[in-house]
Amino acid sequence: MAELPLEALRKLSDLHPKPANLHFQYGTAGFRTLGSTMDSVMFRVGVLAGLRSKKLDGKTIGVMVTASHNPEPDNGVKLVDPRGEMLEASWEVHATTLANAPTTEAFIEALSTLVKNAKIDLSKPARVVYARDTRPSGPALVAALEDGFKAIGVSARNAEVTTTPVLHYLVKAINTKGTKDEYGEDSEEGYMEKLSSAFKKLVAGKVSPPPLIVDCANGVGARAAAKLSDYLGDSLKLILHNTATTTPGALNNACGADFVKTSQKIPPSLVSILKPGQRACSLDGDADRLIYFYLDDRGLFHMLDGDKIAALVAAFIVELVKGAGLGEEIQVGVVQTAYANGASTKYLADRLPVTCVSTGVKHLHHAAERYDIGVYFEANGHGTVLFSPETTEKLNTHQPSTPAQSTALGHLVNLTRLINQTVGDALSDMLLVEVVLVYKSYSGIEWDSLYHDLPNRLVKVVVPDRNIFKTEDAERRLISPPGLQQKIDELVRRYEFGRAFVRPSGTEDVVRVYAEATSRAQADDLAYRVAGLVYDEAGGDTSRRPAEFL
Ligand SMILES: CC(=O)N[C@H]1[C@@H](OP(=O)(O)O)O[C@H](CO)[C@@H](O)[C@@H]1O
Ligand SMILES: [Mg+2]
């Protein structure tokens, strides 16, 4: 058995010392914090990625350097497993342990323990593909990551500056190359070609829709969308805005999917551009989230979020499955979280099976894998559609009995190619939405009227210790602090169609309160009453109690 290359590890690790006063945690979004503090984390993730690859017999692991929709000075890093999905949960713990070893010696000791416990054969090859978004802190952090690769002897491929979904695509494409399940050519061009050719086949013979305005959040999505636009040609005209990827401070600033979803507003930069009735969409900083919106005749803003995308797409896929004569054989299901608008859940549950899971993409992804075709979206616009291997096989081999069945089947096969099944992908999802809108001859207005969102409010509550909040039932009910859930239940009963839940955030040091009810005023009232309860119960400082809490 080969040994750890101690000399190289020591020498390079000493160049990337861990800041003494900081604790790092590999959470829902990998490691994510102020970019300027992440040098040691990056180095160690480089080493870890190498070990993960060795553990998996030299399969290629992905590393993405991004902090997505967070402010520009933040950065982050996450690992991608060989099939393009998120890192296996047990390794999240290893990542956290390695990142927090206080010294080089402690780091090397933690590595030895990991190698022993996880039975990693160090003589195996290590392969990694990595990329970064457009953040200014990216190049230096990537250099630290590369030192990590060097220290453990990784054969590393630099995918340069690209989106998170492209990196996930590359991982899967590389690992399936030359097999019968080949995912696509392992390059950004291969990705563009795969998506755009599937899109063109799907919309062939249909009337081209009016141009679509795309808010690129001044991030890496701007570059990818510009390339995709060339591939799409006349099949879909994209008008790109917020493409200032090199302007300091511009990233995610008053634009992008998270801004639109959280503030429920049009990005100010689009106010004079968007005409009533025209469709627009926003990507987030690494282009894995998508939110649509439009202005009505009175200039009022309407948002079409992840729930609306799920409703549109799931209903369309069900129709195609039935149309292909496979309604009895293929079960389409939807996965949501508690943040899904109650009206969307009702709309969907009347039509197909719906599962609710805990927040975080990995939970949604795994639950969606249990359906033959699983549609999953978070309300914030992150989501995709998964076709099980058996379903894909069935679609490729099924013999249709009529020309209509054959057409529907062809559309389904093209959808399996249009959709990035590794992870939520703003550009792939955008093309998917556009396909459905073309087929249905829907504008944003008709799409929006599938169901009417219940007014809702999301509130952050800062408490001394958010870890006292424990939940059950896919985070919809509190089991701790004791008695609090009963008080929330009593409050909720007083509101028509009232619903509220409380959970600790996995990415920020806050407790989140969500509430919905039939009117804006009622939703706000319920949210701020629950927020008040939470604040008081958690021992929040009475002198700093936010004025809006009731
Ligand atoms: C209410 C909300 O939007 N929560 C987000 C947020 O998680 P929290 O655990 O709520 O902080 O970040 C996650 C990672 O990006 C995302 O998956 C999730 O949807
Ligand atoms: Mg993102």
TrEMBL record:
GO terms for biological process: carbohydrate metabolic process; cell wall organization; UDP-N-acetylglucosamine biosynthetic process. Pathway: Nucleotide-sugar biosynthesis; UDP-N-acetyl-alpha-D-glucosamine biosynthesis; N-acetyl-alpha-D-glucosamine 1-phosphate from alpha-D-glucosamine 6-phosphate (route I): step 2/2. Residues 205-290, 305-442 form the Phosphoacetylglucosamine mutase AMG1 domain. It comes from Obba rivulosa. It comes from the Eukaryota. SUPFAM superfamilies: Phosphoglucomutase, C-terminal domain, Phosphoglucomutase, first 3 domains. It is an enzyme of class 5 (isomerase). Belongs to the phosphohexose mutase family. Catalyzes the conversion of GlcNAc-6-P into GlcNAc-1-P during the synthesis of uridine diphosphate/UDP-GlcNAc, which is a biosynthetic precursor of chitin and also supplies the amino sugars for N-linked oligosaccharides of glycoproteins. Substrate binds at residues 378-380, 503-507, 512. The active site is at 68 (phosphoserine intermediate). Binds 1 Mg(2+) ion per subunit. The keyword GTP-binding does not apply. The lineage of its organism: Eukaryota, Fungi, Dikarya, Basidiomycota, Agaricomycotina. GO terms for molecular function: magnesium ion binding; phosphoacetylglucosamine mutase activity. Keywords: Carbohydrate metabolism, Cell wall biogenesis/degradation, Isomerase, Magnesium, Metal-binding, Phosphoprotein. This is Phosphoacetylglucosamine mutase. PROSITE patterns: PGM_PMM. Its EC number is 5.4.2.3. Residues 458-531 form the Alpha-D-phosphohexomutase C-terminal domain. InterPro entries: A-D-PHexomutase_a/b/a-I, A-D-PHexomutase_a/b/a-I/II/III, A-D-PHexomutase_C, A-D-PHexomutase_C_sf, A-D-PHexomutase_CS, AMG1_II, AMG1_III, PAGM.
